[in-house]
Amino acid sequence: MASAAVMSAVKARLDAFWTRTPIVYPNEGAEPPADGSAFLALQYPVAGEHAASMGAPGANVQRETGTIRFVLKIRSGADVIAFAAWLDDLRTHFRHETFGPVRTFSASPGVLDDRADNGGYFAMSAAVEFEADFLG
Questions:
Q1: Which residues sit opposite 131 in a β-bridge?
Q2: Residue range 48-70: average pLDDT?
Q3: Which residues of 75-99 are buried (b: 16+ CB within 10 A; e: fewer)?
């Protein structure tokens, strides 16, 4: 899981940009929309930290690295190409950007999975690599 500072920065950026669907953040317990419309789930499946520099006590740079994963859940049977364009917008908005302590890099193309049809929803996802530096 990402640090609180990373999650806060990503949430602020996503909230300011994404208006197409409700957003489900980690552990918020939100239910899918009752009408079966699309929604976006945010995940942090991979994160780690290492020392990026050694200096005086308290002035060492700790570098957090990880992945931000966007999972767009669409109604089963919906036009995948139309919703893939939404994922492309997310990828573009988060690719090679700096916001708060976060620096992002490459964004994966959308991923589809034959097993993604679950509970009337079909899952499409994309991931963006990130890093963030902190003193400590």
A1: 65, 103
A2: 88
A3: beeeeeeebbebbeebbebbeeeee
